[in-house]
Amino acid sequence: MSAPSTQDTSPPREQFTGQVGFILSAIGSAVGLGNIWRFPGVAYENGGGAFMVPYVIALLTAGIPILFLDYALGHRFRGGPPTAFRRVKTWLESLGWFQVMICFVIAIYYAAVIAWALSYFVYSFGLQWGDDPAAFFTGDYLQLSDTANGGPWFSLDFVPAVLIPLVLVWVATLAVLAGGVAKGIEKANVIFLPVLVIAFSVLVVRAIFLDGAGDGLNALFTPDWGALGDLNVWIAAYGQIFFSLSVAFGIMITYSSYRKRKANLTSPGLVVAFSNSGFEMLAGIGVFAALGFLAHEQGVAVADLEGLTGPILSFVTFPAVISQMPAGALFGALFFGSLALAGFTSLISILQVVSASFQEKFGLSRRQATLWIGLVAAALSVIGMATTTGLIALDTIDNWSNQIGIVASAVIMCIFFVWLLHKGPELRYHLNAVSTFQVGRWWYACVGVIVPAILAYMLVSRIVDLVQNPYEKYDETYLLYAGWGTLVVLVVGAVVLTLPRWRRSPDEFTPWPAFPPSVTTTSKEAAR
């Protein structure tokens, strides 16, 4: 099947050099902070070993299907979210910009966590957090505002220990983005992803030989089969898969648009999905082996430990582990170095969505888009996250942009493309026309029923909870502006960015291969 000429008048699109570069870049995006600090705790709290049953089912019925949806949209319509969605239906452009805004907001605070990891990488050599890692993290390091005793909810008092590494993170990120897809993003992932896997594997091997490691692994993997009857456990499994694969907010749409016309999509998608889950399992083993050691040293059960997920796990609980183990400095360097690398490869993918979308609509060069978008994002990141109220802002904005913004984006995508626009057959045909692994009709049920139903339940439940219970007992006025205000920014930004005219019209475009298949298409190709 030869690719016909199209009416697309835009400049030649950048491309990954090949399948390996694309796979490594996609894995680098998917493997992020959540794999290390979220999965182990979620699994432990939701049935231990039994959690793997809903987890695998969620991967097969939601994670992989929606990953294929992103791939099909980006590859067929050759653009970032605004371009791809507009080429499906003009009025869908705003949904594309909504995803771009989500990426922009996430990048602002995501960079701060990487900066923390860099700081702790340095601190680990001298175990500088001392005997009280919790007090060091919130007090000495972040200098967190004491809001409970009248401290400000928003401050411009900068913390040098956060500010300096944060600036370095932004400089490195913009340098990679300025290098482009092949020489920047792909090259960075080809270097950093193997380093990440090797470093984290060494860390895991070291952890499983610690005293008490077996207790930690037993705590993680001992199945509580009764948990399978709890709906919340299944929701947690689908939520973990959804948030860890970098789907439904533009990243995989953008990355797949940089693949050649005849590039295989589904087989690499399976590699990316299972590699991401494999790394989560590796992280679970390493984290809980280390937690078993900590419990052994403190003479308590693993169940009695606190801080098993999120930033507290990484920056409070793990420093406590590192302080008590032999060769702790090396272990700390491996852990925080891995955390920084995982975050960095994800950050460049997040910002590439924004950069690509601005290049396409406003006719900017790669370096122009990187410069302007990067400077604005870096400035907002420094102002909002490098201050004494940075942790509070990060926690609040992350909750609303992820738990509501991304989930809403996924629900809308599935409903619009499958039910309202009836694009399921075309997108499935596209996947099968270029791929070796063929997608069956089961895909319609997954992206049209299972994914939107479960995510809609998650979305409504979360909104109701946030309305009834102030998040983390933060000040309600602050939550109104920093939390709900984040959603307003996402929506208004999407509308405003939709209004300007395109520098080069994306509408004169012919998707390939043609759908429905022409009468000259062979029966074999049509069946695919």
TrEMBL record:
Spans traversing the lipid bilayer: 20-39, 51-74, 95-123, 158-178, 190-213, 233-258, 270-295, 329-351, 371-394, 400-421, 442-460, 480-499
Membrane topology (UniProt): Multi-pass membrane protein
Keyword terms of this UniProt record: Membrane, Transmembrane, Transmembrane helix, Transport
Family annotation (PROSITE patterns): NA_NEUROTRAN_SYMP_3
Annotated compartments: Membrane
PANTHER family, sorted: TRANSPORTER
Protein name in UniProt: Sodium-dependent transporter
Organism this protein belongs to: Isoptericola hypogeus
